[in-house]
Write a structure and sequence with these properties.
By secondary structure, this protein is α+β, with helices and mostly antiparallel strands. The chain contains ten helices and 17 strands. It has helices at 2-23, 36-47, 71-84, 119-126, 152-165, 183-193, 205-216, 231-249, 412-442, 451-462, and strands at residues 30-35, 50-53, 60-64, 87-92, 95-100, 107-113, 135-140, 145-151, 171-182, 253-257, 260-264, 269-285, 291-310, 316-329, 336-349, 355-371, 386-406. Strand 12 and strand 13 (291-310) form a beta hairpin.
Length: 464
Amino acid sequence: MYLFFYLFRIMLYAIILSNTIFADTKIDLRVKELELVDFVHLVSKTTKKNIIMIDKPKGSVEFALFSKISENELENILDTTLQANGYALIKNNDIFTIVDKSKINTKSRKIIELKNIEAQFIQEIISNSYDKDNASVDVDRYGNLVILYGNEQYINKLEAFIKELDIEKLQIYVEAKIIEISEIGFREVGFKYGLNSALLSGNSLYTLSAELGLKGGKVTIPSGFDLNYPTSLVKSSLNLWTTLSLLQTNNALEIISEPSILALNNQESSIYVGKRQSIQTSTTTDKNGNPIPNMERVDIGLSLKVKPRITSDNKVMLDIKVQQEEASENGASLSPVSDKKEIQTTAIVQSGENVILGGYIKNKSNVIEDSVPFFSSLPIFGNLFKYNKDSKDKISLVVILTPHIVPSSKDLTYLQYELTKLKMLESKYSKDLLNKLEYKKEDKTLNITNDLYSEALKSFYSSY
């Protein structure tokens, strides 16, 4: 019964086409829900082409033509229909072959020029995941190229995967400020301007800048500043820089270095501030018994390593490692010893927010010469009007880091231009607040005569 129905359909299509095949080279054809296998037979009879079905196509076809078509156009319809269903029509003169496209082992070679990621990294990423039977992957490190060779379909998949990896990376501009703060100078600023936070034990830039913020009033971000930093963050930054300016103006702070780093997202960068110094590591003797020192050149200074990583909520995670190494004289011998201090931490901050790292404290002794004016300059007797006083101070080394995300559609020049606007605002804010503090200091009604401060001053200096 099925065979009869099948033959009937073939005969029906033959009758439909019989008038056009012999009368004209154009074919009037309409197909509705015809099995692909039947459509192949129809095309074969119409075009007089032998079609070999290595793989029997599955699926159906349905189309309606507005006008008559030629035999070549009918072949193209067959080719397009087979392609859409995962089959290929291979033409060889008058013999056509239908095969499953997945079984075609067409070799292809592609050279991909990478723009943002190094070629060897791509090779490492895909080395354990790609099928070595279907493709080979080589790299040209000098040209930063990836060369793919193998099965065409597999090569296309690898190419798409590589392009997903080769995306433009965001950059983070990290400003660093390395400073030394005198504890005596810090306290004197507190006494001078009536700043309670500077008189507390464990002097802190955080607390002092917070107190100055209360005295500074509101902050208005100027128009044209396009970094979209929140007002609270800008004010916090202004208060910190004003604090540093106040301490520096009163000789309580010394800026050691102000380096900056431009780092790729999730890439470590480093800063080194210091010098190379010769250190005696051991001593040998010559044949006459004379000592010969063995010297080694080492880095003495501060090393800062930062690995910034942008989080999903557009904050910056900083992996920070600070290492300070100093050479100091060894009391038991003439050879210096190396004194190393290290801090390793992780912080998550907003773009433009400050990270303050402290804890490096060293003692400093100075001899202060005091004298009586005029009499101390007299010959012979002048020394009677001079005396020396030992001053002991504690110096804190503080590192301040400020990361800034470079906007994806901008460059470093744009960011630095915007930061220049911010620094101009900092300069104006600091000047206004310092003038305000000086005015209060000179106002007799606000002058520090409080017994609490007087007692604290006596207690502080008596400890030295």
